[in-house]
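Example for tutorial group B:
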């Protein structure tokens, strides 16, 4: 009862004019920043951090929280409409979302994406409100072995994404992991695969790789094939999206939401593993799993729900333990500390008004995201009516600016262009590029967690199997691999002569 009263008081504070405008402005900034390729919402939060100096602690958290909620969804707009993920977590949305756009179902795809994202975010915000303490105590049991196991689960989920090309997909994943090792060793500080080039020693950022493979590669393919990036128009009257269309994918939305909430509460996991795992699980469970990648609604709904479900879940360890659950919440932690606020269990006792105002604002932001998402999507629809040559030039310029802005380094622009040509070549020969990107993203995380866990256990490699949580997650990953490969193995066994 006390929680309900505090939440109602939080809603009252959040609906005050200044607080409400702060949430709305932050939400719009996040959606736009997430939708623009190369301009991620995390960068937008980092750039917004200095502006929070002039705000109060609660207002600063409302502003950054709005950017966080809007930005996680915003990346899906460009992913669905032009096959360019605005954020790494939006990568799975390209697989079925853009396929729906090419069929002339862009409105249906955006409606499903917004609904799934809002549902996942709203459920995670409610979880943040009512289940913070239990989830925080569970997250306290996670250490480096558990983080490694969770990352491995994300990596093996790529196998489920592979349709009939598990070997090629595995090769693409391993290439991506190899690219992720370029730079300085995370444990010993030694340069690897830099070949004496100083710029390479700082590593190859996954954002630059992603922009090159998808944005630049898409434009090169457009120019080479004289293809129109604009979505096809449906014959007759515009297709209406009805409630039954949303209810048809309610199972995928609920499963994605549950996975996102579980992954998001793990410190350091973030939205990308949640979206990838949700897509892989849904591909195995859904009756139309074999059709995933051709424009199946459930293949879009599951990762959309999952990635937004990580937003509220990632704030659980932040507010209750003072541990950021993602890069975005790390910026929010910095904002709180700049305001002289120390997150942790005492915060719920010393300043419950601030805590529950944040809870209420997260709920409000996820509801308002429906309107904000459609508004920004309409802006992109207007953009896509421009001639393909102008649209391609716009994407290239924006992508190169985004690549340069990652570290303000011209070397990243060159890397982006190289991967753009590589992405076009991979697309032409049918070599999957998505596993490569996921390998670049998750490979370094797995390496860092593995090396740290082994070093802390004094070279005892059994630590991953003697700890119950990490052993359970690794067992699930092993079962997931067998489950994914079983149809292929079964067909090959059936073809063998008696």
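The residue assignment follows.
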């Amino acid at each position: 009862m006390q929680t309900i009263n505090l939440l109602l008081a939080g809603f009252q504070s959040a609906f005050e004019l200044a607080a409400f405008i702060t949430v709305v402005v932050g939400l719009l900034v996040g959606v736009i920043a997430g939708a623009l390729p190369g301009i991620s919402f995390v960068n937008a939060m980092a750039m917004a951090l200095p502006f929070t100096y002039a705000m109060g602690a609660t207002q600063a958290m409302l502003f950054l929280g709005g950017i966080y909620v809007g930005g996680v969804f915003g990346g899906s707009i460009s992913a669905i409409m032009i096959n360019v993920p605005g954020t790494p977590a939006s990568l799975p949305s390209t697989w079925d979302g853009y396929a729906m756009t090419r069929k002339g179902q862009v409105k249906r795809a955006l409606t499903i994406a917004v609904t799934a994202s809002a549902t996942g975010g709203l459920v995670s915000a409610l979880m943040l409100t009512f289940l913070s303490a239990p989830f925080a105590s569970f997250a306290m049991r996670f250490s480096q072995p558990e983080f490694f196991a969770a990352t491995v689960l994300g990596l093996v989920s790529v196998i489920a994404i592979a349709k009939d090309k598990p070997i090629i997909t595995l090769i693409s994943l391993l290439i991506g992991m190899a690219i992720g090792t370029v730079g300085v060793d995370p444990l010993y500080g030694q340069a690897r695969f830099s070949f004496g080039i100083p710029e390479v020693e700082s590593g190859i950022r996954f954002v630059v790789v992603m922009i090159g493979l998808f944005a630049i590669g898409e434009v090169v393919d457009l120019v080479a094939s004289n293809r129109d990036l604009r979505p096809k128009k449906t014959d007759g009257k515009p297709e209406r999206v009805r409630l039954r269309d949303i209810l048809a994918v309610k199972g995928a939305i609920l499963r994605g939401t549950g996975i996102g909430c579980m992954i998001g509460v793990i410190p350091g996991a973030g939205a990308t593993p949640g979206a990838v795992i949700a897509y892989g699980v849904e591909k195995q469970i859904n009756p139309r799993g074999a059709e995933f990648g051709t424009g199946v609604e459930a293949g879009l709904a599951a990762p959309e729900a999952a990635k937004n479900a990580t937003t509220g879940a990632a704030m659980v360890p932040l507010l209750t333990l003072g541990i950021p659950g993602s890069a975005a919440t790390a910026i929010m932690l910095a904002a709180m500390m700049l305001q002289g606020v120390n997150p942790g269990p005492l915060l719920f006792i010393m300043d419950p008004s601030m805590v529950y105002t944040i809870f209420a604002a997260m709920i409000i932001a996820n509801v308002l995201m429906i309107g904000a998402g459609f508004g920004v999507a309409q802006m992109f629809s207007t953009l896509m009516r421009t001639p393909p040559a102008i649209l391609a030039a716009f994407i290239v310029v924006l992508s190169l600016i985004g690549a340069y802005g990652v570290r303000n380094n011209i070397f990243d622009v060159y890397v982006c262009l190289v991967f753009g040509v590589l992405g076009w070549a991979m697309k032409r020969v049918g070599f999957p590029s998505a596993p490569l990107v996921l390998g670049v993203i998750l490979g370094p995380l797995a390496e860092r967690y593995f090396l740290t866990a082994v070093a802390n256990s004094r070279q005892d490699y059994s630590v991953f199997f003697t700890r119950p949580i990490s052993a359970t997650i690794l067992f699930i990953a092993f079962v997931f691999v067998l489950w994914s490969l079983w149809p292929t193995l079964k067909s090959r066994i059936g073809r063998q002569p008696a």
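Residues 234-238 have pLDDT under 50 and may be disordered. Compare this with the pattern of hydrophobic and polar residues in the output above.
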